[in-house]
Each structure stands twice: as C-alpha cells, then as structure tokens.
Amino acid sequence: MAGITLQNIVKKYGDGFPAVNDVSLDIADGEFVILVGPSGCGKSTLLRMVVGLEDITDGDLTIGGKRVNDKAPRDRNLAMVFQNYALYPHLSVFENIAFPLRLAKGKHSDAEVTKRVNEAADLLELREHLERKPANLSGGQRQRVAMGRAIVRQADAFLFDEPLSNLDAKLRGQMRTEIARMQRRLGTTTIYVTHDQTEAMTLGDRVAVLRKGELQQVASPRELYEEPVNLFVAGFIGSPPMNFLPAQLEGTTLTLPFGSVEITPEVAERARGAEFLIAGLRPEHVEDASVLEGSRAERGTTFEVDVDVTEWLGNELYAYVPFTPDERVAAKLAELDKELDGESMRHQMVVTLDARSRVRDGDRAR
Ligand code: ATP
Questions:
Q1: So what's the ipTM on this one?
Q2: How confident is the model at residue 294 (pLDDT cuts 50, 70, 90)?
Q3: For ligand 1, atom 25, which residue shows the shortest CA distance?
Q4: C-alpha 45 to ligand 1 mean position (Å)
Q5: Span 4-235: which CATH code?
Q6: Using N-to-C axis directions, what is the helix angle for 110-123 and 139-152, rounded to 10°?
Q7: Phi-psi category of residue 89: left, alpha or beta, with phi > 0 → left and psi -120 to 50 → alpha
Q8: Whole-prediction pTM value?
Q9: What is the CB neighbour count within 10 angstroms for residue 172?
C-alpha cells in the first residue's frame, strides 16, 4: 500500500484553458479521499492522470514516495473501477475477477489464482455466482465483480470513477455502504470521483472540492459543511443548498433583507472589515417558531413570513419562504408542520444564526 502525492499538477488539452490547474493534494497511506465537483471540473482528468491514462502536463505525481509521471499504467500498481465496470461479457465471473492475474503471465500458479479469486469472492459475497456471465448478474453484482478484480491484484490503491452512477437509488445506497465497509476492512488507499453529494459526504475521510480545474477546499465532510472556505463550497455542499442573502453588520447586529438578527461576537469578528457581506443560512437554521421550544427559540430571531411552497420528502419537510420579492429561502421544518402543505399562509419563522453559521466576505478562496 502507498500514499499518493500530487504536487502542482496541471493538465492542458491542446492550448486551451487547463482542465486541471495547479492541484496539490497529499493522500495518506490507507486514506479514502473523494474528488467532487460539478460536471467538467476536472475530476476524471485528475484520476486518469493518477492511474496513467492521461499524460501530466506539469507537476509531480508520487506514489509510495516514488515519482511515477513517466511510468506506464501497468507499472503503477493501481486498480481502477470504472462507471461501466469494463467486464468481459464472454468470461465468467471467476475469469473476470482472475483477469489481472492471468495478464501477468506465468507469475501466478492456477492454485494461487483460485485462492485469490475465492478470497475476493467471499469478501464480496459472490461465491455462488462465480460460474455466471456478467449479463446474468444484477447491476450491483457486476459492480462487485469489478471491485473483485481490483482486490485480487493487491494493488497499492483503488481508484473509483463514479462507480455507482448507473445504479438505481436503492442499490446505490447499498453499494455505498459496501464500498465503505470494504475499504475500511482492507485499509487500501482510495481515490473516489463522484458528483453525488451523499457519496461525497458519507464515504471519505476527506473530500476535495474542485471547480474549473482548481482545488477549492480539502477537508473532512463535517468541516466542509460547517466551515466552507468560499461561496462556491458553501453552495455546493448541502441539499437544499445554503441560502445566500446580502447582509450588513453593525456590532453584532446583522441586517438581512427581511430584518435584523443578533449574531455572536465570534461570528461578527470573522466578518469585521469586509467590504461587502453575504450571510449563508442553512435551511435548518430557519425554523417554524410555533413548534420551537426552549433555548433554540430563544437564541433565534422571529419573523412573520409567507410560506408558499412546501416539499415533504417522507422524513424531511422543506418550506420555501419568499423573505424578499425575488429571493426564496429554504427552511427545514419539523415533521409536526406537515399541515403547511402548499397553501400560502402567514407564518412565524425563527432564524438562528449560531456560531456554526458563517458570515464572510466575497468569494475568496483560502
Ligand atoms: P464529469 O462529471 O462531467 O465527468 P469531470 O469533472 O470528470 O466531468 P473532466 O472529464 O475531467 O471533468 O473534464 C475536465 C475538462 O477537460 C472539461 O472541460 C472537458 O471538456 C475537458 N476534457 C476532458 N477530456 C478531454 C479531451 N480528451 N480533450 C479535450 N478536452 C477534454
């Protein structure tokens, strides 16, 4: 196993805008890192450079302390799992998993191949499917075969490129848990590309957020959510997204389009001296006053507003509140409020801006 270090990595296709621009990232041995960002931000390009499918225009890539920029993919000892799994339809599950071992001709005896394939199949609960062809497997089983192939190679690291995006929501959930469990059990360094928020927030030790080829923030899921370094990360992580409102600060009084809210001195301190301010309000910080009790209600500031649309998702209820004529603010409500179902009504909402809420200036990257 090995750590992977990217140092000032650049990728240019032709002479256009760099697809990956000066990315530096240190991935520890055994760490699980997620690359996330909108379509076209350079996630796949970055992964393909690590595995060796794409040349690196500039910068250094080291695996296990050795520079590998000029090494062929087969000499990097990495295992990649693709979105379409890349299984061979004419080969059985056993032979699909065994494939990388067969490729290394003469290196592994038949007994060794059988032993390794069986071990991987046990781990992935594929033992009873070994004789089947991929066409006769479900999407999730195919996914596991692709992972089996990565496991038998005993690679230094696993690289996943949106491996779950072809699966339905239920299976995606199951496979997500399985990948997390397997990675923990094997302790193999893993880089995982996705544009799925849930995968990004639940799978990795750290998440690297990319935008237009540039790294915005690398942090634990919790830190990304609670301490985003700029507006892009704040708006990208979280669903429904954070509400952004223009704000002005005087002392500890923050004036928003719909009124004033008291904030803590610590939060106020962070925003001091900024030229212009945008307040970021998570939907869970706007709540229905009528069902809030105790300290949370006391900490907040209450406003009377119209609720014009609600969305009930079974376990969550969101209301969209036109706090200003052209801005709707998403509010996460308690289940008790189910009767607020789409009818326009005046309602008391509480806005809580506590120490976790950030107030910062502009779109400044750290
Ligand atoms: P998605 O989530 O849509 O797969 P991504 O974040 O993985 O997107 P990349 O596929 O890495 O993005 O692409 C990054 C940028 O590089 C895009 O602007 C894309 O158009 C460009 N690009 C990717 N591959 C090539 C190529 N072979 N030739 C030229 N430009 C390319």
A1: 0.97
A2: low
A3: 13
A4: 6
A5: 3.40.50.300
A6: 130
A7: alpha
A8: 0.85
A9: 20
